[in-house]
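We were asked to recover a plausible sequence for a given structure. The inputs and outputs are reproduced exactly as logged, with field labels preserved.

PROBLEM: sequence recovery
POSITIONS: 188
GIVEN STRUCTURE:
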């Protein structure tokens, strides 16, 4: 059993007969009244995000988890195939469990959190950012870079990312995986 002081990003807890992963948290100590912890939790089974407030000292049931490095192999319908980089065992995970599955490149190494009790994968954590090549976008306009205007661009994985107007086909860009947003252009 853990308490609210143990809450951190990535912590998996049992709540309302389901397993949730803490996405965000904020310890609040108002001037009047007791302290509390405001959290944003994501269900690892349904993907539903839930806002919840725990009073200070509240007991929470944490889930014992293990983290392993897996290599993304290929997609198959609604499933993604992964291989453990240590023992080469393969597992399949539903795309609904993965945040921004369209940003995963084949061969990419990700971190998978697995429930220690039953061996079920709980979540897939992509690297903070990935470098992808733009395969399709409208041509860039010279001199139109002073504004904050963006345009849609399709990257090599098939995902669509909003990019600045100066990005062209063939450019490599860094994409932030958490938000699925453009970060910077990579110079070759």
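RECOVERED SEQUENCE:
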């Amino acid at each position: 059993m853990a308490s609210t002081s143990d809450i951190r990003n990535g912590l998996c807890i049992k709540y309302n007969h389901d397993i949730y992963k803490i996405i965000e948290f904020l310890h609040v100590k108002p001037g009047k009244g007791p302290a509390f912890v405001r959290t944003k939790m994501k269900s690892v089974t349904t993907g539903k995000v839930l806002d919840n407030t725990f009073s200070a000292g509240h007991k929470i049931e944490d889930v014992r988890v293990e983290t392993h490095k897996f290599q993304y192999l290929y997609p198959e319908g609604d499933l993604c195939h992964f291989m453990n980089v240590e023992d080469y065992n393969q597992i399949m995970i539903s795309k609904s469990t993965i945040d921004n599955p369209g940003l995963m490149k084949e061969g990419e190494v990700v971190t998978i959190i697995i429930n220690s009790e039953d061996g079920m994968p709980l979540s897939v954590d992509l690297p903070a950012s990935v470098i992808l090549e733009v395969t399709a976008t409208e041509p860039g306009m010279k001199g139109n870079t002073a504004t904050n205007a963006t345009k849609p661009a399709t990257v090599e994985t098939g995902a669509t990312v909003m990019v600045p107007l100066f990005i062209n086909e063939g450019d490599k860009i860094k994409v932030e995986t958490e938000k699925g947003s453009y970060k910077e252009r990579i110079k070759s």
